[in-house]
Amino acid sequence: MGNCFSDVEGGKQAVGGTQQRPNSIAATNNNNGGHNDAVEFFFRSRGIQPLFTQIELSLSASNLLDRDITSKSDPMAVVYAKKRDGKLEELGRTEVVLNSLNPAWIEKVTVAFQFEIVQPLVFHVYDVDSKYHNVLVKTLKLNDQEFLGEATCVLSEIVAKQTRSLTLNLNNKNGHTILRNLGALTIHAEETVSSRSCVEMVVHCSHLDNKDLFSKSDPFLRISRIVESGGPVPICKTEVVKDNLNPIWKPLCLSMQQFGSKDNPLIIECFDFNSSGNHVLIGKLQKSVADLKKLHIERSGANLTLPSPHHGHEKVLKGQLFVDQFCEKQQYSFLDYISSGFELNFMVAVDFTASNGNPRNPDSLHYIDPSGQLNSYQRAIMEVGEVIQFYDSNRRFPAWGFGGRTIDGTTSHCFNLNGSTGAFEVEGVEGIMAAYARALHNVALAGPTLFGPVINTAAQIASQSISYNSSKYFVLLIITDGVITDLQETKDALVKASDLPLSILIVGVGGADFREMEVLDADNGRRLESSTGRVATRDIVQFVPMRDVHSGQISVVQALLEELPGQFLTYMRSRDIKPSPLHAASTSA
C-alpha cells in the first residue's frame, strides 16, 4: 500500500474532500482544460453551443518503473488531448503520489466527450523529483521530472467499455516499446453529475491499534467509492494526524459527484502514515452516506475490521469510527449566482511608471504607433476588456493610473485615468482606451511602482458595497510591466482585502521578470502573510502574463477566468450567501 495522495507537506495533506473544490470548475488546482462555468457561459452568449458530455477520468497505474535509488518513484499523471495538427493540449494533472509503483490518484481530470468526433488522448506518467514536493502540481515543469511512460487511446474506447474502464500498457514516448516492462495505466470514465448536493462531515476514530514501535500511529482516512464494475475508486483522503490513536480530522466535504448516491457503498480505510509510502492498514469498514448519517443521529460508532488469515472472515477491532457532525448542503455554481442577478463589477488600473520606457520611443510599452498598431497596454485593454465587460452589467468602469506625474506636478499612485478630479468611471472598453490615450499626453511617467494605493482604493469601494448590496462582487484589473517596489505593502493590502468581495487580476505586459507577480498569486498553496503575521483568508490574486497569451500557450478567456469562479464561490460560501432560489432552479433546468 504505497498510496500517498498529495504533492505538499510530504503527502500529509488532505486531497479531494475539501469545501474549496467548487463544483463549477473541475479540479480547480490543476486542470487547465477542465469545465469552467465562466468560460462556457461566455461562449454560449456568443452562440457557441457546446454539444458535449462532461466526463471525469480516474487514473491508476501498476508496476511502474522505480527510478529512485533509496525509495520508490513519486508518480504523477498528465492527460493531453491530441489535436489534428499533432500538438498536445494539456487537460489536467493528478496529484503526486509519494513512494508508490502502484498509485491510485484521487484528483480527477475532466474532458468534454463529443460523440461525433474522434478524440485522441495521450497520458504521460512522471516521477516527480523530491525537491518539488512542496510545489503546486500545475506549476511543475515537466522537463525537470523523470519520464516513466506514455499511453494513448481514443476517448470513445473508454466510454464504450461496459465497465467504463480501459487498461493500457505504458510505452516510451512516441509509442516506442522497449524490452523493459514500463507498467500499465488504467483509466476509468464517469459522466459528471449535475447536482448541487453535498455532505459535510466531521469524523473521528477512537482506540485505534498502534502500528508504531516507539510512538503512536499517524492515522489518515482514505475513502473510495465502489463503481459498477465492482472496483473501488478513491475519492478523497484526510490529512494525517500525528502521534494519535484517537484522531479528529478536519471537516470533509463530499459532493454527489464523488459519492454517487446516498446508498452507494463507500470503503473507508484507516492507515498509519509512513514517509516511505508503505502505509500500514489499521482497519477499514464499508458504509454508505446514509449509514454515516445514521451513525451521527444515533451517536454510535462503527467498528473497524481487518481481513483475517482465515479466508472469508474479518477480524472485528476495538477501534471505532464516529461521525461528530453531519450536514447536507447545497453547493451552488458560479453560473447559479450570475444568472440570479449577481454582478461582477470591474475596475481597471494602468501602470504609468518610467520602467515602461519613454512613450515617444518606439520601443516603449506605451508608444502610440501612428499606423494604428496597438501597443502592449492597448492590446491588453482590448483583449481583456472583451471578456470583462461581458460580466459587467452597466459597463461603467472605475479606471485609474498609478506611478505617473499628473498635471499639477505631483506623482500619484492612484489618479483618475480620465483626468477628472471627481468622476473616476469611464464608459466601456472604448472609454478606457480613450482615457488611456489622453492620459499619455497629460501624465509624465514617473515612479516608483506601488500597487498598495490602487488596491486600497478598490477595497474601499468593495467594502462600502457590503452594507447595501451583497450581490456585487468586484474585480480589479491591474495592467503592469511587472516591476513592483512595494511588495510588502502590497501583501498587506491584499491580506486586508481578502475578507472583501474582491478579486484582483494582474496582467503583465512586456518581457519583464514577473517572479514577484507570481509571489502575489498564491498558486504555491501558501496564502499571503502581512507584515503583522496575519494570513489571507483566501487567495484573491490571479496573474496572467500576456506574452503567454500571445504565444498561443493559453487563450485570454481561459487565462482570465481560470481562477475567478473559484475565488467568487469561496467568498459567497464563506459568507453563506445564496443565489435567488427561483433563478437557481431555472438555471439547473
TrEMBL record:
It is found in: Cell membrane. Its main location: membrane. Keywords: Calcium, Cell membrane, Lipoprotein, Membrane, Metal-binding, Plant defense, Repeat. It is a lipid-anchor. GO terms for cellular component: plasma membrane. It comes from the Eukaryota. Residues 1-32 are annotated as: Disordered. PANTHER family: COPINE, PROTEIN BONZAI 3. Signal peptide: none annotated. Belongs to the copine family. SMART domains: C2, VWA. This is Protein BONZAI 3-like. Residues 345-564 form the VWFA domain. GO terms for biological process: cellular response to calcium ion; defense response.
